[in-house]
Amino acid sequence: MVVDTVALVYWSGMVVLFFFWVYGIVSFAFDLRNRIVPGVLQYRRGRRKRKAEREREQEREEKEQQLY
Amino acid sequence: MARLKLEHVTKRYEDVTAVDDMNLDIEDGEFVCLVGPSGCGKSTTMETIAGLTIPTEGKVFIGDRDVTNLPPKDRGIAMVFQNIALFPHMDVYDNISFGLRLRDYPKEEIDRRVERAADIVQLEGMLERMPDEMSGGQRQRVAIARAIVREPDVFLMDEPLANLDAKLRVHMRTELQRLHKELDTTIIYVTHDQAEAMTMSDRIAVLDTGELQQIDPPLVCYNEPTNLFVAGFIGSPSMNFLNGSVGADAIETPNFSIEFDPARVDGLAPGDDVTVGVRPEDVYPVPEADDVAHPTAAIQARSDVLEPMGDEIFAYLLLGDGETSMSQEAATDDQLLMSIEPDSDLQEEEDISVVLDRRKIHLFDDATGDAIAHGIVDVTGEGSTGTRAESDD
Q1: Class in CATH terms, B4-229
Q2: Whose C-alpha in A12, A54, B41, B282 is 20 to 30 A from the C-alpha of B275?
Q3: Hey, are the CB atoms on B98 and A65 less than 8 Å from each other?
Q4: What is the ipTM of this complex?
């Protein structure tokens, strides 16, 4: 009876412990796929776009100054 | 000075065509205004001429040179922008001389040109001022002086007066006309203000949806518009438009008939649908219609709203049963706008008889919008300005 109780506590503890461990790993994997990687890509795209925009504006400004 | 020519210029942005097959031929020393509603392609056309935008198709010539792919600095043009775009940290002298210093002109030459330009735009004694110490009109004159010192072949002006108040705009309009006379340089001027276009230009180019609708002297655009768009765009307030259909010897509109001379509307057959156009100043109250040589029969109307403008009164008339208010969604066939003398005693909600001057009635093809006739009565030998529409020639 005591042995059964110890086993039950042991396995329950293991389940709780490993459930959250696995849960954490899976959640992190999903976060990585759905939030972190797209976020980084979007940030880099935004930087590229802003840079291209800046270059276009600068080019436009230089052209306009040629008309002053 | 130089002649400017656009040959089949088209500019597309992905799926939007900003300028569509534009052909323009502008003579030496001409003052041409590009007018049209927002998004009609006038600024894109200007930028194509300036070299700020490369056309998708077509060629741009300045003088005899093909400048389509040349950078702006090699085109021999100077541009005045809507936002004025002065350098805030430079004084007037440095702003005006910027283009010359960029091109390494000698100091003496720069001084000479700046002084002359400042003299032309009446900025003498202000060369050491900073832009933030000047009024809007003075800043705009600095921008114009900056263009003048370059002594370009062609001046481009992109709505340069748009940011000025109404009084200053009228003043600067006169200044620009004086400047054009003095410099005798080709000027291309973009505006959406038709009063500017009418008063300043030798010719007006009317644009819509990227296409050139008409290019003619201001009064020709006003008196002989090539299509419904030009007729509606040029003139303030706008021309009255009524739906009509051709009868044996009269145009039948929903509320009245207008007799016409068949010789004036050659090509129309009974039953054809037309749009009748008449300007507000060509609608006369019957008591004042004695001087109208070729009036229509009297038309019964009821005055709705009167707008006193000081030098004239705009009277909105209701035709037919007179029950439809202008404030409601009324068919245009039931409305007529009339311009009358400021001392008229016409009151709102008053019955009135009016006539139209048949020499000034315009007919447009209902399907295409193209002008069919300007004036529907034969006035040969009377010295009338009304002439047959020549748009199809």
Answers
A1: alpha beta
A2: B41
A3: yes
A4: 0.73
